[in-house]
Write a structure and sequence with these properties.
globular; two-stranded antiparallel sheet; mainly alpha; 64% helix
Length: 122
Amino acid sequence: VFKITHDADLATPVAVDHHVAWARRLLSNEYERHQLCDKEFSAADVDGSGSLSVEEVIKLVFKICNSMNLILPTKDKVAKLVAACDKSKDGDLQLKEFRTCFKTLLKSCLDEAVKETKAETA
């Protein structure tokens, strides 16, 4: 989400969009995105099962979005995406499936941030 702050010296709005830039960078850099996914997946997989339940994915997505100040998707949207990414159809996401889910959510959050920014400037 773009945030507007004011530069005291210039007295003009300055866009602080490093979170959006971070999301764009992750989308364009598969290696960096996979590194983050792997790290976050491992941390969220507390039972060491090698998979994340829908609830674990929702918590993880909310944690990542909150930490980067991105617009949160609804729990229902995340649950539907988990079902769509669950290629093994076991109800959980393994790492590769989570990577796909995360990339899709990142794109969605970025699109929402751009829409919000356009609405605020209109």
